[in-house]
Amino acid sequence: MNPQHIKPALLQFLSTDEILEDASAWLTDQRRRYTGTADAVVQPKSVAAVQKLMRFCFENRIPVTPQGGNTGLCGAAVPEGGVLLNLSKLNRIRSINLADNAVTVDAGAVLQTVQEAAAAAGRLFPLSLASEGSCQIGGNIACNAGGLNVLRYGTMRDLVLGLEVVLPDGELVSHLHPLHKNTTGYDLRHLFIGSEGTLGVITGATLKLFALPKTVETVWVGVDSIEQAVELLTLVQGGFAERLCSFELVSRFALALSSDFSGIGQPVDAPWHILLELAD
Ligand SMILES: Cc1cc2nc3c(=O)[nH]c(=O)nc-3n(C[C@H](O)[C@H](O)[C@H](O)COP(=O)(O)OP(=O)(O)OC[C@H]3O[C@@H](n4cnc5c(N)ncnc54)[C@H](O)[C@@H]3O)c2cc1C
């Protein structure tokens, strides 16, 4: 299809406010290292609209790049022509089920919104990273985000109970069950987690929730070497088991950059620093 005809054709099934007029802001990544091009940038408001879009692009051989918060840092959400499918308008918290310890959300829900919704219900959604104010659950799943709490709660792969995905030809695969003890058959969700948008568009997810910690202790430690840091990690894991949530190693060089930028003094002078968090 002639690229100039794509936008008018999309109006057959998308409303005018689902197709962006000025799309330049969506074509460059966070660090401004990559800038792409797109024949159309769309923000569908429903799963049905995503299905129609995918079917149309499939039939007309138009490439589609899914995009969440565009915080992925390596340019994977920057399009090279075709349609840029931004999920920002698909952003509802669909339901929270305390008995199942689970929340079901649209893929475009911002991570921090999901954390806050869980906290308001007296639960913890533990994925936490510096981009949490703008990255989206779909993006977190598509790149299997890790963040600060992996030691205790695992990566996004460990936090997803069910997925809803639109396949390239528009077919909807929906497995949004909150069942923790699902032992049957193939587990398709693991194909899509970490697939970076190459296998389909994630439109919804059911995620695990946990108890909110009652006590949190944060500790800053200076050590002489990475070997010493590993020794400390081994010791703390032996003493505190899963109560160790975070253990971040920071070099003197990186800490100096951060300290210069923020104007906050360095807590101790050492070649290596560890920021660790214990929660109970
Ligand atoms: C300051 C900062 C700190 C960070 N810290 C960490 C960290 O500690 N740990 C960590 O793992 N990562 C970290 N990241 C990177 C992190 O992976 C992203 O912030 C986040 O997980 C990506 O989500 P996003 O919505 O921005 O996805 P995007 O950047 O928009 O997309 C990322 C990939 O997922 C695909 N995609 C997006 N949405 C969908 C969807 N709905 N369906 C299918 N495919 C989709 C895109 O095509 C692309 O391939 C950090 C980033 C920043 C800017």
What is shown here, in short?
By secondary structure, this protein is an alpha+beta fold. Helices cover about 25% and strands about 25% of the residues.
What does this structure look like?
With 280 residues, the protein is α+β, with helices and mostly antiparallel strands. The protein has three domains: 84 residues, Uridine Diphospho-n-acetylenolpyruvylglucosamine Reductase, domain 2 (2-Layer Sandwich), CATH 3.30.43; 119 residues, 2-Layer Sandwich (Uridine Diphospho-n-acetylenolpyruvylglucosamine Reductase, domain 3), CATH 3.30.465; 64 residues, Alpha-Beta Plaits (2-Layer Sandwich), CATH 3.30.70.2190. The chain is globular and about 60 Å long. The termini are far apart. The structure holds flavin-adenine dinucleotide.
The helix/strand order is HEHEEEEHEHHHEEHEEEHEHE
Ends: how far apart? 58 Å
- Main sheet overview: 5 strands, antiparallel
CATH third-level topology of the largest domain: Uridine Diphospho-n-acetylenolpyruvylglucosamine Reductase, domain 3
Low-confidence stretches: none
Bound molecules: flavin-adenine dinucleotide
Strand order, main sheet: write it out. 4-5-9-7-8
Strand content: 15-25%
Content-based structural category = alpha+beta
Report the radius of gyration as a whole number of Å. 21 Å
The tally of beta strands, per DSSP, is 13
Assign an overall shape. Answer: globular
Q: Please give the CATH architecture of the largest domain.
A: 2-Layer Sandwich
Roughly how much helix do the residues carry, as a percent range?
25-40%
Oligomer: single chain
